[in-house]
Amino acid sequence: MREYGLSIVIVSYNNMEVIEQCLNSIYKYNDIGKNIQVIVVEQSPSNDIYEFLLKEYTQFGTIIIRNENNGFGAGNNRGFEHVSKEYVLFLNPDTILIEPVFKYALDKFVKNDKLGVFGIQLLDKDGNKNLSYNYMINFGLKFILTSKIKQINDSDFDGKKMYINGADIFIRSELFVEIKKFDEKIFMYGEETDICLRALKLGYDIKFFSDKKIIHLEGQSTNKKGVYEKLCKSFVYLGKKYDIRYKSYLRSELIYYVIKLKIQKNLTNDSVILLNDRLNVLRKYII
């Protein structure tokens, strides 16, 4: 019987602790042995993490690549150049495995030729459900509310209207080539929507499975200056690319933050500054 394999591509940026936790958990819960391939694309400004990974993880067969930070998609595309397995998991570095998932993933693909992309249940550090998928950006206020309150019932998943969270994208290698990989014009955020839309166009199914789980620490990177604007730029680009109502998304986001400023009590000065900065960015792209 033919043995299939899984390549894991991780784009690492400027956080040694999270990439170390992620890699250790992968090797701890590796249930497919030699049929796993791990590729880390290290994009931090300094060489410290790269040199650490070379020293500690190449002994396990991990491929470590030094790369300029041209964005999430570009980093994953660089890692994919080294992929040798039939299936790929694009995994965020701020994830921690808590159970074996790799044989499960291979079985899902092998048993369903139409399965193109899927994700599994994400949990926060306390073990609560994290947002594992969401509506694509043309669904306006519904998208915003589910993003903020992080509540969608598993039974609500619709692979024709929703994307899989980019923290764990399982995909066929041949499909990833067929859809021409990640669009490198998207620096960060929105890549999942783009990947899922292109897979759907080719007739593949997008699925979500809740019976396997991964912790997603989900750092607060969007709180850093300039990062939120990159998010908005990505959604504007996607809106134009697919002729979908990106301004509806931006207006909904603006309404959400206006309401939050007005009704939420005990906001810190930093939170008020952050919300006002986001409102200024949104107004710029709505006009």
Describe the structure.
It is a single chain. The protein is an alpha/beta fold. It folds into two domains: 6-220, Alpha-Beta Complex (Spore Coat Polysaccharide Biosynthesis Protein SpsA, Chain A), CATH 3.90.550; 227-286. Helices cover 42% and strands 20% of the residues. The protein has ten helices and ten strands. An eight-stranded mixed beta sheet has the order 3-2-1-4-9-6-10-5, sandwiched between helices. It starts with 5 loop residues before the first strand and ends with a helix. The mean pLDDT is 89.
CATH third-level topology of the largest domain = Spore Coat Polysaccharide Biosynthesis Protein SpsA, Chain A
Domain module tally = 2
Distance between the termini: 59 Å
Largest sheet: 8 strands, mixed
* CATH architecture annotation of the largest domain: Alpha-Beta Complex
Helix/strand-derived class?
alpha/beta
Provide the residue-averaged pLDDT: 89
Helix count, per DSSP?
A: 10
Compressed to H and E, one letter per element, the order equals EHEHEHEEHEEHEEHHEHHH
Q: Quickly name the level 1 CATH class of the largest domain.
A: Alpha Beta
Radius of gyration: 19 Å
Fraction of residues in helix? 40-55%
Question: Would you count the extended β strands for me?
Answer: 10
Give the uncertain stretches in residue-range form: none
Shape: globular
Q: What's the CATH H-level superfamily name of the largest domain? A: Spore Coat Polysaccharide Biosynthesis Protein SpsA, Chain A
Please state roughly what percent of the residues sit in beta strands, choosing from under 5%, 5-15%, 15-25%, 25-35%, 35-45% or over 45%. 15-25%
Can you list the strand order of the major beta sheet?
3-2-1-4-9-6-10-5
Pfam families: Glycos_transf_2
InterPro entries: Glyco_trans_2-like, Nucleotide-diphossugar_trans
Protein name: Glycosyltransferase 2-like domain-containing protein
Organism: [Clostridium] fimetarium
